[in-house]
Design brief:
Length: about 280
């Protein structure tokens, strides 16, 4: 499976030296980003001075507990939210708005247009963004539906599909746009355990095929270890970078995966101890 160019990862999952030469320009450069929501009554700081760099073909995972600002970070990379502090650059250009160079796949099963078929959903995204038209769009859509094994269901409507199949359509739609980075916000979290595992395997197979760049959000430690080659561990609310780790070189190496899982557990647990101590002060 994913034994290919993971030379950039260290087998022991040790704290990160940059996975690529430090002077290589990252595809996505997030520097000291603070993200806030202003509501009538409150100013909510979702993330505080978060920095990370994603390089081409990285499977970069944002891992942290619920509410630590993972979705907010992803939305900001998507161009839907402007940092109050810091900067986000994609290919050395500051992100200011959404664009087809960043496609998002969400957790929800209702992200497809219900009145369009599977094929039409993928084609529509290509048309609407101006990426491709006519025959070229159909051919591209068919090629990506084939990659996710949905050719037979191209003419079905979303309501006829299972949750896993709908997610595969959403992934095919995102990948068909051939974005610079695919943004995935807990895309498998609402699936049953078996389907979830199957989808994780499928995603890794797709990556073996095309080496796309993905920024993947999860709160599951084992999913992070399985999917990512690099893992950014975020502290609880407001999200700050706790550590940046390389994942295991070979996902089949269960001993290494267990060691890394324990290490991440310890890091999260040490946070909890600090919090409890603070409560008793
Ligand atoms: N639209 C919003 N308005 C105000 N606060 C929000 C909004 N969306 C998220 N938040 C808050 O920002 C913090 C981070 O949320 P989120 O990015 O969704 O976390 P995660 O995805 O890690 O669970 C949370 O405290 C959440 O309540
Ligand atoms: Mg979220």
């Amino acid at each position: 499976m994913t034994t290919s160019p993971l030379a950039i990862s260290r087998a022991d999952g040790g704290a990160a030296p940059a996975s690529t030469a430090p002077d290589a320009t990252p595809l996505l450069d997030v520097r000291n980003v603070t993200l806030q929501y202003k509501t009538k009554a409150h100013l909510v700081t979702a993330t505080y001075r978060v920095s990370f760099q994603v390089h081409r073909s990285d499977r970069f995972v944002l891992l942290g507990p619920s509410g630590c600002g993972k979705s907010t970070l992803l939305k900001a990379v998507g161009g839907y939210l402007t940092p109050t502090e810091g900067e986000m650059r994609l290919k050395e250009r500051t992100i200011t708005r959404p664009g087809p160079d960043r496609m998002m796949v969400f957790q929800e099963f209702d992200q497809l247009l219900p009145w369009k078929t599977v094929l039409q959903n993928v084609v529509f995204a290509l048309h609407a963004s101006g990426r491709l038209r006519g025959r070229a769009a159909t051919d591209r859509a068919c090629a990506y539906l084939d990659k996710v094994n949905l050719t037979k269901l191209a003419d079905s409507y979303p309501h006829m599909l299972s949750g896993g199949m709908k997610q595969r359509v959403a992934i095919a739609r995102g990948m068909a746009m051939e974005p610079d980075v695919l943004l995935m916000d807990e895309p498998f979290a609402a699936l049953d355990a078996l389907t979830r595992r199957k989808m994780q395997d499928e995603l890794l197979r797709l990556w073996d095929d095309t080496h796309f760049t993905v920024l993947f959000v999860t709160h599951s430690i084992d999913e992070a270890i399985k999917i990512g080659n690099r893992i950014l561990l975020l502290s609880p609310h407001p999200g700050q970078v706790k550590a940046e780790l390389n994942s295991v070189a070979d996902p089949a190496d269960l001993a290494a995966a267990t060691r890394l899982e324990q290490k991440i557990h310890r890091m999260l647990f040490s946070d909890r101890v600090e919090e409890e101590e603070r409560v008793h002060e």
